[in-house]
Amino acid sequence: METNELPSILELNKEYFNNESSKYDSHPTHYLCAKKCAEAILKEVEDFEDLEGSEVLDFAYLCAHVKSILGVDLSQNMVDEYNKKVWQQGIDQEEMHAICLELKESEGNQLNGRKFDLVVCASAYHHIEDINSMTRVLANYLKQDGTLIVLDLKKQPNLSHRLHMDTNNSVSHKGGFDPKELENIFLETGMLKDVGSKIAFTFSKSNEKDKEHTFSKCNEKDKNEHTFSKCNEKDKNEHTFSKCNEKDKNEHTFSKCNEKDKKELTFEYFLVKGKKI
C-alpha cells in the first residue's frame, strides 16, 4: 500500500521562497522589515575594532561597511535574486555573493573551514524547525570573539496569530519568540558568552486576511438584490449593506466603521546577541 508522506517544514520553506523570490522585495512589509533589520545590525556592530576588515555570513545590507559577505539560503531562487541584486549594484562577487546550501549540524563546517567575524540571521528563525541545532551550527562558523546576531519577531499575545497566514504552513514558530527563550538557547550551546537581547524596532502591518467578504442574494419574487459585505476582524470592523430595487433602480448603502478597532497592528522585533567563547 502506497503512502503519501507529508512534506517537511524544510521542503515547505523551499517551495514557498522559490515561489516568492521574484516578488518578495515588492511587498512593502518585507522591504521595510529588511531595512530596519539592517539598521539595527549596523548599530550593533559600530564598535567593532576592525569592521572594514570583517567577514560576514549572511547579511547583504552591510556590504558598504565590511570586507566580504557570504549569503546562505536553502532556496535557489532566493539565492539567484540575491546574486542578481549584487550584480546590479556593481559589487564584486569576491566581496559579496550567496550560495544555496542547507547548513546541517551533522555535516560540520560545510564552507571549506571558513570562519566569520559576524554571523547574522534575520527574520528566519521562525521558519526553522530546530532552532537549538541551528544556533549551534551558526555559532560554529564564528571566529573566536566573533559575534552572532539573530533578529526575529517578539511573541505578543492576541497579535501573533495575525502573522504568517499566507506562508503555506512553512512557519514552525508562528508569531515569533520570547526573547528570553532565545537567550537561553544561545547560552545552552556552551559556545557563546555576553548574551543579551533588546527590542530592535517596531513596525505596523495590516492583516492581508482581513479582507471583505461579499454575499449576494437575488429574490426572484420581487427582483430585489441584497448585498452584504462584512469585514469583522477586530482591527477592521466595517459592515456594508446594499439593496437594489428593480422597481425604483435606487441603491441604498449603509456603512458603519468602528474607528476604535480600525487600526494597523504593531509588532516588535527583538535582537539577541552573543560572542564566541
TrEMBL record:
> Per its UniProt record, what InterPro entries does this chain match?
Methyltransf_12 (IPR013217), SAM-dependent_MTases_sf (IPR029063)
Q: Which residues form the Methyltransferase type domain?
A: 62-148
Q: Sorted alphabetically, which Pfam families does this protein's record hold? A: Methyltransf_12 (PF08242)
UniProt xrefs under SUPFAM superfamilies: S-adenosyl-L-methionine-dependent methyltransferases
Q: Which domain of life does this protein belong to? A: Eukaryota
Q: What is this protein called?
A: 20407_t:CDS:1
Please give the organism: Cetraspora pellucida
Q: What is the lineage of its organism?
A: Eukaryota, Fungi, Fungi incertae sedis, Mucoromycota, Glomeromycotina
